[in-house]
């Protein structure tokens, strides 16, 4: 039997930027509840809500100081309970984001750990002496720039932080830490939530002793010893046995640099770990030589290769993909893979069709259904994100000039996806009556406009969500890429017995000639489920328009 979530679509909410109910400029939980009818109209099954626990907000909630309470900026526990029951009333499930790799340095555990070397909380984190030559304990690099170690003056030892310096890594080797984490998961499961998105969950297990990374180059940042580490599958399996399984939860793990073979291990049902995983190889197709902070356009050949590999391998190994083209850490999909100036509508629909034809559970990030664009900030002061700021000053100190560095941020910054949701044509696009915490895009894209036009991107998503429920082939069909070498097109088929789905997408702003593969030429029994132009027929020879995309179902 297939699990229900294989046919489901998840909608990701970044609460800070979704909807502000009390005019303080910051989105909140009541703001989400107010928009449940909108989400129910779109037809999504599940909401993934990024962290709403108590937090100093150095990394917008991914730095948790109290796992058992709601951050006051976002509301109260009653607000959350109301959201949960109102969502359930509409048949929408809720998945909370859980960060177990690190806590904020404001967390009670860390505060106690910091007091002296002898208390039990010290071992909840990783501490190391200053090296004899005065340098940091090893060569690991923080994802937010600089060494992954911060000196604690009081005890004259370094603690490990793979992310921002106030996000101290938890020592999962310590059994009490693991028990505490299960308790946290149980607490939220007992509240009646339906699942978890597990933040950087492939990083929980580090090689004992924390040795230097032997790799030279951008990939030698320590991940050899902390990504998919020695005990990771044991840890996740235990979370499953204790919480996910008994509570029948759906889970998705974030797997930043994990390969397909490992992703299969995380998700193959009989291993009892996770329901599905996000992999990120297709998100790195605009990195120059593996480096994110570079001025580089995405490469379609690389995108096709990365996606095809995961489609084929995960199917073969009985794993399950979480499919996405953007999230709160990524630029806006239409700006990155499409053309947000001249073909915004067309290219956004093309991306939607391309993604929704694949095998896996589909994800929509807030505003993607309106084809919101990148922020195009013009000064560093407009940015809020700690990662972006760190990268900016790193670039300057590496001799990149200010103009170029700003251009790279316009392309790559996480704030591109974090500008407030654009609801209507009133003040601040309906996001807040106060001053928004991050600048709102200056364009005329709004949910109000989308809902009025039955040819809009919103309705494309709405239909795509439904097709995935109506046709089993989207879940069960095998995947095969066609004309892999075509430099403008991404074409693939799905097969299930005699049924076929053909997806033809033009990723360029040019007209492109294309010949239908032989075996499709005499197939007359088809429906064009979705297209972003007005094509009525599939022909042997077709001239595809700029960003044209067609989803055809053959029986
Ligand atoms: O992100 C994990 C991660 O690997 C990030 O480095 C992400 O890939 C990066 O921003 C892209 O360059 C997760 C969360 O999604 C992110 O928002 C948090 O900041 C991070 O973990 C730390 O908790
Ligand atoms: Ca608010």
Question: Secondary-structure map with pairings?
Answer:
Layout (H helix, E strand, L loop, with lengths): L8 E5 L15 H6 L1 H7 L3 E4 L3 E2 L11 E5 L6 H13 L3 E6 L3 E3 L3 H8 L11 E3 L19 E4 L4 E4 L6 E3 L5 H16 L4 E4 L24 H4 L5 H13 L5 E6 L4 H8 L8 E4 L20 H17 L5 E2 L9 H5 L6 H13 L4 E5 L20 H12 L4 H11 L34 H6 L4 H14 L2 H4 L1 E5 L6 E8 L2 E8 L5 E4 L2 H4 L4 E6 L9 E4 L4 E6 L1
Parallel strand pairs: 1-2, 1-15, 2-5, 5-11, 11-12, 12-13, 14-15
Antiparallel strand pairs: 3-4, 6-10, 7-9, 8-9, 16-17, 17-18, 18-22, 19-21, 20-22
The chain binds 1-O-alpha-D-glucopyranosyl-D-fructose and calcium ion.
The site of 1-O-alpha-D-glucopyranosyl-D-fructose has 14 residues, from loops.
Description of the molecule:
With 555 residues, the chain is α/β, with parallel strands linked by helices. The chain folds into five domains: 8-94 and 340-373 and 421-470, TIM Barrel, CATH 3.20.20; 108-169, Oligo-1,6-glucosidase, domain 2 (Alpha-Beta Complex); 184-319, no CATH class; 376-412, no CATH class; 477-554, Immunoglobulin-like (Sandwich), CATH 2.60.40.1180. The protein has 17 helices and 22 strands. The strands form six sheets. An eight-stranded parallel β-sheet has the order 13-12-11-5-2-1-15-14, with helices on one face. It has a five-stranded antiparallel β-sheet with strand order 16-17-18-22-20. Strands 7-9-8 form a three-stranded antiparallel β-sheet, with no helix packed on it. Strand 16 (478-482) and strand 17 (489-496) form a beta hairpin. Helix 5 (175-190) runs parallel beside helix 7 (232-244), helix 8 packs across helix 9 (300-316) and helix 11 runs parallel beside helix 15 (457-470). The longest helix is centred in the middle third of the chain and has 17 residues, at 300-316. The site of calcium ion has 6 residues, from loops. 1-O-alpha-D-glucopyranosyl-D-fructose (TEU) binds at residues 59, 62, 99, 143, 163, 199-200, 254, 256, 292, 328-329, 387, 414. InterPro entries: GH, GH13_cat_dom, Glyco_hydro_b, O16G_dom_2, SusG-like_C. One of its GO terms (biological process) is oligosaccharide catabolic process. It comes from Clostridium paraputrificum.
